[in-house]
Structures are given as structure tokens and as C-alpha cells.
Amino acid sequence: MKKNKSRNIIIGIVVVVIIAVFAFFGIKGSSSNNSNSSGSNSNSNSSTVTAIKKRGVLRVAVFGDLPPYGWVNANGKRVGYDVNLARQMAKDMGVKVKFVQVNANNRVDTLNSDKADIILANFTVTPKRKDVVDYAKPYMKVSVGVVSPKKAPITKASQLKGKSLIVTKGTTAENYFTKQKNVNLLKFDSKTQQFNAIKNKRAAALADDNSYLYAWVKRNPKYTVGIKSIGPKQYVSPAVKKGNKSLLNWANKEITKLNSKGFFTMDYDQELKPYFGKEVKSSDIVLKQGK
Amino acid sequence: MAHSAINVFLEGNNISRIIGGLWTSVWIAAVSLVLGLALGTILGVLRTLPNKVIRFVLRLYLEFFRIVPTIVLLYLAYYILPRTFHVNWPASWMAVLAFTLWVAAEFSDIVRGAIESVPKSQRESGLALGLNKMQLFRYVLLPQAAKLELPATINLATRVIKTTSLLMMISIMDVVAVGQQIIEANNQQYPNAVFWVYGLIFILYFIIDYPLSAWSKRLTAKHSR
């Protein structure tokens, strides 16, 4: 019995050591890969424009559960603003499109482990993300908006002084208004909670990404997005694997071309307009179109 | 009004999409089980051999797959293998690989236990008849062990089927992932759809798993009589 026990302990220790070694090499291996690919482009071979054309399939990472940007309709077809762009890109490249469904937190991994060539999943450009992926030109803009009751609308930031404002924790809205003085913030954990709070008149207004607010006021016509855009503008861009110059250049040219053709206004009218209220214009979301 | 959300299943081809998602889960579970049980039998037999090195290595393998959570195995197969070793298979085959290795590890222990609990007199009688090692396993030990390992094997199968709900984490469109797509797509029209969709998924898993678990229970009862 005693002998058995000590043997078990030894085996346990060995297993832990082996796992630790695996983990170490796993991390080391992947980081050295990253540096390779950003230097010589050797590891992103399967995602260069030539490789994609040869394969005949462009693999795009999209959301499957975020209407109206990337979702699946009742007929099982992938639709949305991002998905439309993906189909157009594949068409212009002359290849078929294949969708890889992702969540917000595995977008970067999907790219780095070669599961997709490009991300079109409402991927907002931030300085931190720029370190791990390469962004092409933006195709959409978002910023913080403020929603308030139509009876007591808030249309200027100065009206918020001394009043309370609802935000969700971890959003850009919280970040921005934490820096503003004279505004009392009421912070909530989820979208459902924050919208319930404004319905219960817990504060004068609510701040969040304007694209969510547009869709929400459409369903709640007693409210209005009084301030459509406040604070720094943020952009949504296609992202490719770090160092994939070939696809990055192609995507930049493609976006420029689509901009001059006014593609994004069409895309907006088709996919986003039905979800947003009348007070929203395509220029609130779409970047400048035409030559 | 409260119950109108059941209509969500009548929209478009939502029902057939859910069934399609369920099929993905079932075939991945089935292929992994077939391959895993075959590999597990071989490993289980090897583990009863007196060679200490083989036994030690296989023990390590078993402990690794038993201790590491399945979700971590799936992530290893889906994200780390392609990045570090440039093995790039479709997601569903990566899942089959991870599940097969897991099933093989668990099953090898079941087989080892069953072979060791076949009465010693059986092995000795076999050897006395002049059977060689292969024949001894093939005709005497494995058939008798099979009966002993059946309930535990069915139990393992139900666990594998349940665990397929993790597949959505590696971008496989299994039944849960399809369910979530439907919930989000109908959030505006049917805010209560979440209850109905998850309810249906619960029933579907139950229909598949319950007969298996009832069968295992009956076999256990029969065995202990």
C-alpha cells in the first residue's frame, strides 16, 4: 500500500511537469511563429491573395448572432451588413465565400490559427488590437451616443451636468464619461439591465455605442438618440493576420473601390435601415461615399 | 401572447436547421466513439501486460486526458495544433481527434479493469489448452471482459454526447450554436424564444441520452443479480 501511494504521487508530479513543458513550448512556439510571420510573411502563405485565388475560397470570420451586422435569418442564410461586404469581396476576387462563425473573444485566435483569411465581424479598431492584427481601411464608424426620453430630450453634453447617466461597465461609453466631471454615472453589468433602468426613470439619459441605441429607439419610440455622437470617433475595419501584406493591400484597394461605387450606402439601406429609426441617416454609420 | 414564441419554430426552416445541428453533434460523437473504443481496446490490453515502461507511458496518457478538461483539449486541437505544428484540418475533424483521444483514454481504463477482473482460472485454463497470447485475449479474455465493461461504456457514450455541446466553442455549428443563432435572429419578434429553443434542445438531448442511460441501468441491475 505504502509503495503504491508514493508511486501515485510520483506519477502525479511527472504529469504536472509534462503539462507544464507542453504549455511552455506551446506558448513559445506560437510567439516565435508570430514574429516569423510579421517578418518574412512565411506563415501566412495560405492566406495570400494568390493562395486564396488558387484555393477558390475566401474564408471570412463573421458573427452569427449579432443582427443586423452578422446573423442567420429564418431560412438559414447568413445575412447582415458585414456579411454583405464579405460576399461582395469574394465576388470581386472571383472566388467563393466560406463563413467561419466567431464570438467577440475568439476573433484574433481564429485568424492566427489560420481558420480564416479575414475578419469582418464588427471589429472596432483599437491601439491594443493593432499590435496583434493588421487593419485595412475602415468601412464603418461608431461612436458613443446618448439616449433620453422624448419628453425631456438631452441634445447637448452640457445638459448632463449634475444629472445621472446610465452606462454599461467596460464599454467605450463608460470610459468616456468617467473622464467627464459633473456627471453621476450609474453603472450596470448588461444591456438588458441598463435599458430597464432608463425605462424605470433611474436617470436622465443612457450612453452606449450609437449603433445599438439606434436599433433600441426603433423599438422604444418614446425615446430619442438626442446626442448621436460624442467623444472620439471609432472605426470598424476588416482585419487580416499580422504581416499578411498581400491580402491587406488587396482589402485596402477593395474598400476604396467600394467607397467610390457607393456600395456601403446600398449595404446600409438593405441591412441596417430596417433596424434603425427614421432619425438615423446612412452618413451616421457609413463613411464618405463617392469620389 | 406569452406562449406565442413557440411560433419561432414555424418560421422559415428553423426546425430543420436545429435537426441539422443535432446531426452534426451526433455524427461527431458517433465517429469519435467508434474510433475511440477501437483505440481504447488496444491500449487497455497493452496496459495489462507486465512491461513497466508501456504501462507507465499509458498511465500518463490516461491521467492527462482524464485531468485536462475537454474544453481545453478542444482548444488545443483547434488553435494550438495549427499554429505550432501546422496541422490544419476542418474544425469538425479536429473535434473528432480530441474526442477520440479522450474516449480512448477513458475506455482503456475500463478495458484494463474488466480484463483484470476476469477470473484467474479462465486465463490459466486458456494457457493450459495451449492458446498463445493473442488467442488468449481474442477468445477468452476480451469476450468475457466485454460483458463486464458494457455498462461503463454506455455511460461513457452518454457523457460524450452531452459534451458535444462544447463544440460551439470552436466554431462548429452544433445544435446549441444553431439554437443561439435562432434566438438572436428572433429577439425582436419573439423575446421569449430563448425559453422555447433551449427547451427543445433539452428535449432532443434527452431523447438521445435517456434510452442509453436506461439500457446501462438495466445491464447493471442484471449483472448484480
UniProtKB/TrEMBL annotation, chain A:
This is Transporter substrate-binding domain-containing protein. The chain crosses the membrane at residues 9-27. Residues 57-274 form the Solute-binding protein family 3/N-terminal domain. It holds the Pfam family SBP_bac_3. Residues 57-265 form the Ionotropic glutamate receptor C-terminal domain. Signal peptide: none annotated. Keywords: Membrane, Signal, Transmembrane, Transmembrane helix. One of its GO terms (molecular function) is ligand-gated monoatomic ion channel activity. The keyword 4Fe-4S does not apply. One of its GO terms (cellular component) is membrane. InterPro entries: Iontro_rcpt_C (IPR001320), Solute-binding_3/MltF_N (IPR001638).
UniProtKB/TrEMBL annotation, chain B:
The chain crosses the membrane at residues 26-46, 58-81, 87-105, 166-183, 195-215. The keyword Cell membrane applies. It holds the Pfam family BPD_transp_1. Gene3D superfamilies: MetI-like. One of its GO terms (biological process) is amino acid transport. Belongs to the binding-protein-dependent transport system permease family. The keyword Iron-sulfur does not apply. It comes from Lactobacillus acetotolerans. Coiled coil: none annotated. This is Amino acid ABC transporter permease.
